[in-house]
Amino acid sequence: MKKRVLVTAVAASALALAGAAQAEVKIGFLGGFTGPIESLTPPIYEGAQLAVQQINEQGGILGGQQLVMPSGDTTCADASAATNAADRMVNTEQVTAIVGALCTGATIAAANNAAIPGGVVMVSPASTAPAVSELDDNDLVFRTVPSDAFQGEMLAKLLLDQGIEEVAVTYVNNDYGRGLADAFGEAFEAGGGLVAENLAHEDGRADYRSELGSLSATGTETLVVLAYADGSGQTVLRQAYEGGMFTQYVGADGMVGDRLVEAVGADVLEGMIATRPGSPDLPGTEIFNEAAEAAGFDPSAVFAAQAYDAAFLLALAIEQNGSAERAGLAEALRSVSSAPGEMVLPGEWEKAVELIAAGTEINYEGASGSHEFDENGDVPGVVVEMAVEGGAFVSRGFIEP
Question: Where is the signal peptide (predicted)?
Answer without folding.
Answer: 1-23
